[in-house]
Write a structure and sequence with these properties.
The complex is a heterodimer of chains A (154) and B (177).
Chain A lengths: L8 H19 L4 E11 L10 E2 L2 H10 L4 E12 L4 E5 L4 E8 L3 E8 L2 E8 L6 E8 L3 E9 L4
Antiparallel strand pairs in A: 1-3, 1-9, 2-3, 4-5, 5-6, 6-7, 8-9
Chain B lengths: L2 H11 L5 H13 L1 H20 L9 H24 L1 H30 L2 H9 L2 E4 L4 E8 L4 E8 L20
Antiparallel strand pairs in B: 2-3
Helix pairs in contact in B: 1-2, 1-3, 2-3
Classes of the chains: A alpha+beta (154), B mainly alpha (177).
């Protein structure tokens, strides 16, 4: 009499578990890969800081459609992952930090911290292609921007 | 005559007693009338059974017949040993059946949750934004640009009018330092 090592229920269980794990990926949020950029907007043609480069053409086009400044320079750029149900800090300057927390939903909580003090909090759903922009006026009729975008996983 | 005495009489007739006990029971059977009657009946029954027992003849030889019996016993013992060695697959099978059912139910629950979540609910949740000013000195204006897929939060100092030309009053001019 021959005996099978695995019963007929084993493949059924395996298939069910694989499908369960696969379908759970959408239900439970995955890690986010986010980019935060500190940008200076001005009507000047050049930045006084030679290390500041112009933003890419696509970003400039988007910003020009929403804001009134002619030129936008990248002051700093930080790319970090935000783990599922976790948070991460994006330090953009000595005084400006962004804390991003991944929440159920999936949503993100974006907290702007200036000079060590929490200034503002936004909770929203972020998706690829969407930007969350913090902005404020700066000296000499210029402005600062913090642009947060979700990057494609590579 | 009690039950034990009756059993002793039966054992005596079947020749199962020691010589000493057989002598004792023989004396008892001679001296007791009931015992004598019982002994007579038992002897008669024994003689009847032994003389009328059906004799079964086996077509094989004696050696061949018993060798078959022996091989069957050995085969049965090996099967029982095999089944005890492979007992864990049976335990596995007993566990797998309910677990597979449970996994399928969980899978269907997750799929139905993902499938039947209304798109309207998804969309409204997607566009829902909570904003909170955490500083007493700073106010905010937020708006969404659908065309540029951009959510903007504009921060300003509260002691100035957000609608006025506030560029001379930066909310924080040290962000770039």
């Amino acid at each position: 009499m021959s005996k099978r090592l695995f019963s007929s229920g084993s493949p059924r269980l395996l298939v069910a578990l694989v499908l369960l794990v696969g379908s759970s990926i959408n239900t439970f949020a995955a890690n986010l890969k986010l980019e935060a950029k500190l940008i200076w907007g001005t009507n000047e043609d050049k930045s006084p800081n030679l290390e500041h480069n112009q933003v890419d053409a696509a970003t400039k086009e988007k910003l020009c459609k929403v804001f009134k400044w002619k030129n936008y320079f990248v002051v700093n750029r930080v790319t970090k992952p935000v783990p599922s149900r976790g948070s991460n800090h994006f330090k953009l300057s000595d005084e400006c930090t962004i804390e991003i927390k991944e929440l159920e939903g999936p949503k993100v909580e974006v907290k702007l911290i200036g000079k060590g003090k929490e200034v503002h909090k936004t909770t929203l759903t972020i998706s690829k292609g969407q930007s969350v922009v913090y902005s404020g006026d700066d000296k000499n009729q210029s402005a600062w921007f913090v642009i947060i975008t979700e990057l494609e996983e590579k | 005559m009690n039950w034990e005495q009756q059993l002793e009489l039966q054992a005596w007739i079947d020749g199962e007693l020691s010589a000493r006990d057989a002598r004792r029971v023989a004396v008892f059977a001679e001296s007791n009338a009931d015992a004598r009657l019982l002994v007579d009946e038992l002897r008669m029954a024994k003689a009847f059974i032994s003389s009328n027992e059906t004799e079964v003849t086996v077509p094989e030889t004696r050696e061949f017949y018993w060798s078959q019996v022996q091989s069957r016993i050995e085969r049965a013992e090996s099967v029982s040993e095999t089944s005890s060695v492979l007992s864990w697959p049976f335990v596995w099978r007993r566990l797998v059946s309910p677990l597979s059912g449970l996994a399928l139910v969980a899978f269907l629950a997750v799929v139905s949750f993902n499938t039947f979540r209304g798109p309207a609910i998804d969309d409204s949740a997607r566009f829902m934004v909570e904003v909170e000013n955490l500083s007493d000195d700073v106010g905010s204006i937020s708006y969404r640009s659908q065309s540029e897929n951009m959510f903007v939060v504009y921060l300003y100092k509260k002691d100035q009018d957000a609608d006025s030309d506030a560029q001379t009053e930066p909310v924080d001019d040290s962000f770039f330092q």
